[in-house]
Design goal:
The structure is a single chain. Helix content is 37%, strand content 17%. By secondary structure, the protein is α/β, with parallel strands linked by helices. The strands form five sheets. A seven-stranded mixed β-sheet has the order 14-15-16-13-12-17-18, with helices on both faces. α10 links the parallel β12 and β13. α3 packs across α4 and α10 crosses α11. The radius of gyration is 23 Å and the shape is globular. Nicotinamide-adenine-dinucleotide (NAD) binds next to α8 and α9.
Length: 491
């Protein structure tokens, strides 16, 4: 009898699996040609008379013109927020809650439109904006609506009072979600806000202005001033603010801290990260591979808490890297509006340059680069999912935040060594631990200097769970009962 060829034990998972295109309807959102500033409940032309164009990073197509807020514009927005604070802060808390509930419901009703807008303006895959950004943004408003009339119970024995006008500055990686993280707790506590969206992703904030109108948010309670870093700097310098909540890079966070020194303005900073995703040899390896992929390639790695350093126990290094590379070959990179897309466009040409420069440094310092074969679209800004092996702790790719789809793999032998390497960073935002032993997860969590430690999962968010950093990742917490405190003073 001739030898019978055994069936292959596994299906070769390669990018050769073609899916038919599954585009989400682009025309569900129609942008206005121009968006003014949202001040006092109205869209107004900027006093600066200056505008800029926001473009889609996946096609380079211009989407709309947006106002570049100047100093006078920022002052007007702060005045409107001050004026509105007098009545909003005295409103019955259950009435404030109703407004937040209305916002949450409208976000759900308009979720598809907002998700498409987010993917068009920011480049992230529609399955992420649809299944993560929008549901979580609505959940934040629902969650904080629930707290609005229960603040006395949140802080027993203390008399919580709102601070006043909150200046809130957000980055471009989760534009609507970061807006929700900032605006929901501020309003629930009785503050009014001036929000400054990032310059490359202002459009969902402008659609949110329309949501405020629909939800009958009183004029001046939410104000939105678009523009670049100079607009943010004007806002921080305004004398009429009581609070600054900033999410963005560590350098800008430090500049804001310097600016506020000596002023009676409360500050919270959510800054960069270089998280360790730590894999022990007893873990469920295939699940860990999914967690590693989600940890670094979710939102093109434009995630402050991304698991950008993989610490793998030496005995399983080769097996894990093999599995990881095979999984990476199945990632679909391309049109953010296609429902099959896993990795979308890089947010801007400047960010693409930063990623490329750091990747080049990795090659020059001697790490070994792997990218699965994938065809990148010709227009727009793209970067293939990348993994570096043979990485030393001193390499720039192991120390600096890349904020792109680039993973650095390091090894360890003992739990103590894993902790030491994980903590060997100026950041401390998040970490992941993969092991079968619950006791080991707790042992590690006690020793890891990071605000969040995920056990056998990664990038999991919930409005009831606090999020924030240690060291140069910032201070203050967003989410949960902890997230109320930065918006309150106590009598
Ligand atoms: P960035 O600091 O350049 O910009 C963030 C925001 O600050 C933008 O709206 C920008 O216009 C504004 N800004 C810039 N200069 C300013 C100034 N001098 N004064 C006031 N505002 C100013 O950061 P980015 O490149 O937009 O975002 C990426 C960074 O954000 C990464 O480092 C990332 O880790 C961090 N991030 C952190 C979290 C978190 O929760 N910790 C979440 C998302 C992003």
């Amino acid at each position: 009898m001739g030898a019978v060829e055994k069936p292959r034990a596994e299906v070769a998972a390669t990018a050769a699996w073609d899916y038919a295109p599954a585009p989400e309807a682009r025309d569900i959102v129609s942008f206005e040609r121009r968006y003014g500033l949202f001040i006092g409940g109205e869209q107004v032309a900027p006093r600066s008379r200056s505008w800029f164009t926001t473009i889609s990073p996946s096609t380079e197509e211009p989407l709309a013109e947006v106002a570049q807020g100047g100093q006078k514009d920022v002052a007007l927005a702060v005045d409107a927020a001050r004026e509105a604070f007098r009545t909003w802060s005295r409103r019955k808390p259950s009435e404030r809650a109703k407004v937040l509930f209305r916002i949450a419901r409208i976000l759900q009703e308009r979720a598809r439109e907002l998700a498409v807008a987010e993917s068009l303006d920011g480049g992230k895959p529609i399955k992420e904006s649809r299944d993560v950004d929008l549901p979580l943004a609505a959940a934040h408003f629902f969650y904080y609506a629930g707290w609005a009339d229960k603040l006395e119970y949140a802080f027993p024995g203390r008399r919580p009072r709102p601070l006043g006008v909150a200046a809130q500055i957000v980055p471009w990686n989760f534009p609507l979600l970061m807006l929700a993280w900032k605006i929901a707790p501020a309003l629930a506590c009785g503050n009014t806000v001036v929000l400054k969206p990032a310059e490359t992703t202002p459009l969902t904030a402008m659609l949110f202005a329309d949501v405020c109108r629909q939800a009958e948010v009183p004029p001046g309670v939410v104000n939105i001033v678009t523009g670049d870093g100079s607009t943010g700097a004007y806002l921080v310098r305004e004398q009429g603010i009581d609070k600054v909540a900033f999410t963005g890079s560590t350098d800008v966070g430090k500049a804001i801290q310097r600016e506020l020194a000596g002023r009676e303005v409360s500050l919270t900073l959510e800054l960069g990260g270089k998280a360790a995703n730590i894999v022990f040899d007893d873990c469920a390896l295939d699940q860990a591979v999914e967690g590693i992929v989600n940890g670094i390639y979710f939102n093109q790695g434009h995630v402050c808490c991304a698991g950008s350093r993989l610490l793998v126990q030496e005995s399983i290094h080769d097996q894990l890297v093999r599995k990881l590379k095979r999984r990476m070959a199945t990632l679909r990179v391309g049109d953010p509006l296609d429902k099959n897309t896993d990795v979308g466009a890089i947010n801007s040409s400047a960010q693409l340059e930063r990623i490329a420069e750091l990747v080049q440094s990795g090659v020059e310092e001697g790490a070994e680069l792997y990218q699965p074969p994938c065809r990148l679209p010709e227009k727009g800004w793209w970067f293939a999912p990348t993994v570096f092996t043979n990485v030393a702790q001193s390499h720039r790719i192991a120390q600096e935040e890349i904020f792109g789809p680039v993973l650095s793999v390091l090894t360890f032998r003992t739990p103590d060594e894993a902790v030491e390497k994980a903590n060997n960073t100026m950041y401390g935002l998040s970490a992941g631990v993969w092991t079968e032993k619950g006791s080991r997860i707790l042992w590690m969590a006690e020793r890891l200097r990071s605000g969040v430690v995920w056990g056998n999962t990664f990038n999991r968010f919930d409005p009831s769970s606090p999020f924030g950093g240690y060291k140069e990742s910032g201070f203050g917490r967003e989410g949960g009962r902890h997230g109320l405190e930065p918006y309150l003073r106590f009598e």
